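Continuing from the previous page...

OK, I double-checked the sequence for Extracellular solute-binding protein against my notes and this is the correct one:
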Amino acid sequence: MKIKLVILGIICAVLLYFSYVGLGASSDKIIIQTNADEEAIAAMETALDHHGYKGQYIVQPQSTSELGGKIMAEGKSIDADIVTQASYYLESAQKEHHMFVPIHSTMNQHELKQYPDYMSPILGNMGSLFVNTKVLKEKHLPVPKSIKDLTKPEYKNEISFPNIMDSSTGWLLLQGVISEYGDKEGQQIIKKLIVNAGPHLESSGSGPLKKVQSGEAAVGAGLRNQAIDAEKDGEPIKYIDPSEGNFSLTEAAAVVKKAARNNKKQRKWLK
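Thanks. Re-ran it with the corrected sequence; updated structure tokens here:
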């Protein structure tokens, strides 16, 4: 629900601003470039359409690394009005390009952690392991207690996790390994995990759960909330908090500063 409210608030403000300054024609739709997964994008579109903005925006999904690279390379020249991305990418881009306008949102005042005024947090993603209990039983595989357990030979071609080069969710796994085992041993563990994943190294954060749900893999590493939802829906999915701990990251929305637009008025509408 929170992602719907925050995204809706930001996008509605931008749409109102564009209408105010005479934009909003069919060729001037709001471009939203996002690294969000299918579930989050569906929430955005449902909220916007429900509030009368259907047809006034275009959502362009991209991988975390692709969008991050684009933001860093293009800065304010990026062909987007709004971006939603991992907060560390937004911070780096703002430091390099000063490309986002301040967002004076009342929602930010209720955040437990204070974020820069140019971004509004929309998601707090926490990682975990999850298993298909039916597949584990059929293949006589033990329930893993740690990420390191997944490097064992019995899990060869039975694990799935996101490629850290494509997905911010993959960084949650990497953080857990490096934090617990250090750089040297951690690198060896990651290499073994990649070998054991085989064809199940995914480009999206939701990919591993799909592999585990279908039974193509017995164990996955991904987003904790998605595994919990699958378990609540009665699927043979069980989430596991690994001994290395669960790490989290924040994704946020930001409005791109455009030279051709009156940012003073834009900031006014964003209030």
